Description:
It is a single chain. By secondary structure, this protein is of the alpha/beta class. It has 5 domains: 4-78, Ubiquitin-like (UB roll) (Roll); 127-274, Alpha-Beta Plaits; 283-353 and 566-754, Rossmann fold, CATH 3.40.50.740; 356-560, Dimethylsulfoxide Reductase, domain 2 (3-Layer(aba) Sandwich); 798-909, Barwin-like endoglucanases (Beta Barrel), CATH 2.40.40. Helix content is 29%, strand content 18%. A 7-stranded mixed beta sheet has the order 14-13-27-26-25-15-16, with helices on one face. The longest helix has 19 residues, at 295-313.
Amino acid sequence: MTDEFTLIIDGREVIARRGMTVMQAADSAGIRIPRLCYHPQLEPFAGCRLCVVEVEGMKTLAASCALPAAPGIIVRTDGERVTAARRLAVELLLSDHPADCLTCEKCGRCELQQYAYELGVREQPFVGERHYDALDDTNPCFLREYAKCILCGRCVSMCHDIVGAGAIDFAHRGFTCRVASPFGRPLQETTCVFCGQCVQACPTGALVERSRAGKGREWEFSTVRTICGYCGVGCGLTFYLNHGEIIKVEGDENNPVNRGRTCVKGRFGWDFLTRPDRLTSPLVRKDGELAPATWDEALQVVVSNLSRIGSEHGPDSLAFLASAKCTNEENYLMQRLTRQVFATNNIDHCARLCHASTVAGLALAFGSGAMTNPIADLRRAPCILVIGSNTSEGHPVIAYEIKQAARDGATLIVADPRRIDLCDYAAHWLRQRPGSDVALVNALMNVILSEGLADEAFIAARTEGFDDFRSSVTECTPEWAEPITGVPAEDIRSAARAFAGADATLRSSEATPLRSTRRAAIVYAMGITQSSHGTDNVLALANLAMLTGNLGKPNAGVNPLRGQNNVQGACDMGALPNVLPGYQRVDDDALRRKFEQAWGNELPSQPGLTVVEMMNAVESGQIRGMYIMGENPALSDPDICHVRKALEEIEFLVVQDIFLSETAAYADVVLPGAAFAEKGGTFTNTERRVQLVRRVLSPPGEAREDWRILLDMARTAGQDFGLDSESAVFDEMAALTPSYAGMSPARLDQAPLHWPCPSPDHAGTPILHTERFTRGKGLFHVVSYRPPAEEPDAEYPLILTTGRILYHFHTGTVSRRSASLDSLAPEGYVEINPATAAALAVADGERVRVSSRRGQIEIRCRVTERVGREVVFIPFHFAESAANVLTNAALDPQAKIPEFKVCAVRVEKAQG
Ligand code: SF4
């Protein structure tokens, strides 16, 4: 039976599907019905009356946005009666609207202006009381002009239904009705997250980006579509330019990842691009000072020093850091330069510090280490377990999906030591002690097994190693886990039942039939991975997914959220010490030979050093020369006092970046690179989707795209790679990388693709492991709980955990140079529970000293229930109160990822 039927619109037969409205049916047939309050992502509001239509047999006009399409109905969208009603609606709106189109920022894009023109409204026929509100310019991101608000409600619905912030709503009734924040407070004092979705949705000039005010008329702007350079979600952005100047940024409505939505960083955090302190020429250290130099001179100094060190001390005395902020092409070239020109596998990047344990753990369990399902799957997942991910701040647009799913009836389970934003949407919040994740997940699985909730058919058909695994969790009862995790046994039991779908019958009786299946998705991030037993944590989650059969199907899976914009791509490109592009092992002779033949050189076969090992090797004298592209280990690595000492001691250091970062300050040569909006190429987002990046601006001064610098470097070293564009680099990479083999820049220009995409006729793979795992069968692992490397004691009685906040990114190198982001979050802080603060006699806002065995910092304290009594939290973005002075460099033995998330600290009132 088909869902399709026919109706008549304006005399044409139109095919519609069940569930469509008349407006949607008309849109699908190219019949444009006017609308002001309607937005395709929102539930119909039916308030503006612009979309009214005549339906044969109905006495009154009907709002087409809310009118269900039905078989055989006859609709007229353009009759005299309809036009008169629309004209009246516009006249009424204009009767209380400033007629200042000539000076309005939205002139030329204002939808009200457009309809007034189309409907022939030439004057304001109604005279009466009017609103004259002053312009509200109290926030750093956008302007609010209430007098231009037509109360269409798009901003309110965006804020509530899409973003889940609920910072604005309709207040009052009748003439005094207005969109307002609670008690009219400035937005900074509300739950507003400054995503700017309201601004993008506003059809008039009531909400306007600060950056575009006075910068030109809408029709003067050109646009460039590209991908956000902050986090791994990979949102599509549309840059608006006027005469080469960026005017504003909007979410790309046509990008399948974000469908127009962004967070504050993507929309408002781009002004660092034109900061005067951008690096604009190469710098070479002379007489102890960094001084401007020509490119030829700088490249010569780099090549001669690295070559000299390599020949005097062997190639493995050199180390290279690639960059998860750079494109796939640039990471490919960086690892080719490292391996082919400098003959070492000592290459790594910041994935080591965020998801190395994901790559290691999922490769062991499934054969490949990446997000198994697309982001969009979360929207329809019946149950979502979010563990070790403050998604609302780390990956905001993914949090929008999770919140919408929870509002639509999905069961959300949050496991996090802090009361994060998602807890407000969760049916179950498990506040586990930092570092106790294996105990918690094993206990969840113990319940699932003991209550007969495992997916036995999936286990039998698709997995191996089950019997040993089952024996290993027999003792891990919720009562065993309670004292380790701090989570009450009964809470573990009920969360386990929810995850395994024991309440699926209950959900299936509710509104959404799509939620009637027993499927559950696991979402995790650095709370799981940044641990000295991060690989165990990941393996435990892989066990949980296999135990419940939640792999290889929609709305399920194991979904690690990658941190930086291209950290997935940098891993895929082989910017890792043990693998070439496509995770082809350097110590596999056949695979290595393929690259040797393509590049024409013998390549090193021994896996190289990882990030933290490199810094240790500097101290021991093994590493003497280092080339760092777009990374900032002087702030991002654990125990940074140790790292800074290493950077000071190293014989020769090259840093390629866009600002003189904390790390660049130690360099002998600084090479000015290009930011994400100043280059072409590709990024691969957290869900393995490869997307084209387009150039919005030219790099400033003599700065060059990083891929050009790397090709110039190879040429200076006497090895011309024979490549002259980003697309040529991509094509070479794709020819050597099976999972990218079917992709090309031309194909990606049409639509992004999920890898693996092995051939040009392959559509890409949004869901992994549908028929078989990459390794054949999924492998259960025995994972035993081990305590963190450092536990609190009498001297250091509190547990420090670190993480991101919404307004900043990584080491703050760019986000802290964005005026709006910096003004929304100007300084670091330590979160302390009220009971702990009282015991320490410190008050909210006071400065405290936080000490660990590795160092101490002074920082303002924020007294909050978000953390439990024995835990404190510090965001790691702030150089002047750097959390990584305190963190522990203890490594996971397999993934070599450090223990950022747990260390023992002491907090005291700061002196003076
Ligand atoms: Fe950029 Fe991530 Fe924000 Fe999207 S969610 S706009 S990718 S920072």
